[in-house]
Design goal:
The chain is α+β, with helices and mostly antiparallel strands and 162 residues long. The chain contains two helices and twelve strands; from the N terminus they run αβββββββββαβββ. The protein has helices at 7-18, 122-135; strands at residues 22-27, 30-35, 40-44, 55-62, 68-70, 78-82, 85-89, 94-102, 105-113, 136-142, 145-150, 155-161. Strands 4, 5, 6, 7, 8, 9, 10, 11 and 12 form a nine-stranded antiparallel sheet that branches.
């Protein structure tokens, strides 16, 4: 794949530096690799992905009819996990509830919401999202994307860090 400059030149230099024999040293969370020509590459360990303490913007969710659907129009669905509580906006109402994790396993619920009435199809979207969140039993993070799945393996929620 051809990348625009300066990306392409950086990639070429990086690949060249990694070819051949390297001397390396590890100091805490830092790795230093030195080429035979004396060029030095420095790497720093990235913290593992965190579910808690991040504001997540939901981009899609399972509507419980074997379809993952996007968020309607200009509505916004958000959630955050902290200290055993998940809370956010379901598009119309605010919600909160308990959650727990053990590794990549997740348990959510019960969930409670405020009682504001919005027009359809916003209320349907809200019910479907809350059901998807309650059905999530597994989570993973890749970069800034949260991917949650149900027990049957279907995707429950897809969200991005805000």
């Amino acid at each position: 794949m051809a990348c625009p400059e300066p990306g392409s030149s950086i990639e070429t230099a990086f690949h060249k530096a990694l070819s051949g024999n390297l001397r390396y040293a590890v100091d805490g969370d830092h790795l230093t690799a030195t080429t035979a020509a004396g060029d030095t590459l420095r790497f720093e360990r990235v913290a593992p992905p965190q579910l808690s303490g991040v504001n997540w913007k939901v981009t899609s969710f399972n509507n419980n009819r074997h379809a993952v659907v996007g968020v309607l129009g200009e509505s916004s669905i958000t959630m955050s996990f902290k200290d055993g509580t998940v809370a956010g906006s379901a598009g119309c109402n605010r919600f909160h509830g308990k959650y727990s994790t053990e590794g990549s396993k997740l348990e959510v619920g019960p969930l409670a919401t405020t009682r504001r009435a919005c027009e359809e199809p916003l209320m349907t979207q809200e019910r479907e999202f809350l059901a998807a969140l309650a059905s999530a039993v597994k989570w993973s993070i890749d970069g800034n994307v949260l991917d949650m799945h149900r027990a049957d393996g279907e995707r429950a929620i897809w969200a991005v860090a805000e």
